[in-house]
Every structure is written in structure tokens, then in C-alpha cells.
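User: C-alpha cells for this one?
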Amino acid sequence: MLIDQLTLPRTLINLLINSFLTFNVYLTKFQLLLILAHPVRLRFRIYLTLVSMRIFRRRIIGFEITY
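Assistant:
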């Protein structure tokens, strides 16, 4: 339990930085608060869904523009 609480937030922060660099994903303050308000185990899942939603939306917009 202690290991989860210590390592997961770090990995979450690393993921936030990495995703920002690679996908240029911008999470709003509300979304960030939403992630932080949830328990540690749920944070990762919520974060992933938010990111995947962003990427998916970008792809759809890109598709609409190109075609």
C-alpha cells in the first residue's frame, strides 16, 4: 500500500510530462483537479481516458480537415 502511494504519483507526473511532450496534450485545471481528487488507483485510469479522448478527438478533427 505504501509503495503504491509513493511510486504511482511519480509515474503519473512522469506520464503527464511525457504525454505533454509527445502528444502536446493540454489538461485543463479542472481535469487535473478531477484526477487529483480521486484515489491513487483510479487516477491513472482517469488520466489515460482523458488522454485517449484527446488523441482520438485530434485524429477526428485532423481527418475532417484533410478530407
